[in-house]
Design a protein that fits this description.
Helices cover 46% and strands 7% of the residues. It starts with a strand and ends in a 13-residue tail after the last helix. It is an alpha+beta fold and 215 residues long.
């Protein structure tokens, strides 16, 4: 294998965060789209062999090591390529703290709200719960970005890639970021990074997610 292979889907912010990090690291990689409409046991044989959990994204690196879960992939890539990883041991620890926070907080709120409003509508009570949690998550992230240009300091890291993965799709969930100007400014800083590309420009074409699909 000459370049890493990323199994992904263009509607997956978790796929996007990995693809964006690799692009900003200037790491060439191949993308292979996964049909998320298929039951996991019916997805392609090579994907099922690589994916421990049957989910996207999965990165198969140059040595053939398959790495699952987006934030673990980010950690693996940062350590392997020595980029977007913080400048000091203390900062690298802070980066990992934000990766864990994103997985437990932000990834459990806005992505679900967006999925409900774009693909498979959940009931009103569940949407309300996600919305309340999202507001708290945006508040916390916004407080950090009021005093720091990036999530873990003065330079972008994989912590930024993790936290921004879905936030270029707020319009799809009917979410207005105006109450969080620090988030708006931060996303603009990410857009200005050399090599940045929007999700649908960066990720390869994938089978559209059918209405009502539960991935």
């Amino acid at each position: 294998m000459t370049v890493p292979v990323l199994y992904c889907h263009r509607e997956s912010g978790h796929s996007y965060k990995v693809a964006l990090a690799l692009r900003l690291m200037a790491v060439p990689f191949e993308q292979r789209a996964v049909d998320l409409n298929l039951p996991r046991e019916q997805r392609s044989e090579d994907f099922r062999a690589a994916s421990l959990f049957g989910e996207v994204p999965v990165l198969v690196d140059e040595d053939g090591l398959a790495v699952c879960q987006s934030n673990v992939i980010l950690d693996h890539a940062a350590r392997r390529y020595g980029k977007l990883d913080g400048r000091t041991p203390a900062q690298r620890t802070r980066v990992r703290e934000w990766l864990a926070w994103e997985a437990n907080r932000l990834a459990m709120s806005f992505p679900h709200l967006r999925f409900s409003r774009r693909f498979a509508r959940a009931d009103a009570a569940l949407e309300a719960w996600w919305t309340g949690r999202m507001h708290a998550d945006f508040d916390r992230l916004g407080r950090e970005l009021e005093t720091s240009p990036f999530v873990a300091g003065d330079a972008p890291t994989i912590a930024d890639m993790s936290c921004c993965g879905y936030l270029f799709w707020t319009d799809q969930a009917g979410v207005d970021l105006a109450p969080w100007p620090a988030l708006i400014a931060w996303l603009e800083r990410i857009r200005s990074l050399p090599g940045w590309a929007a999700p649908y420009d960066l990720l390869v074409a994938s089978p559209p997610i059918a209405a009502g699909t539960r991935t």
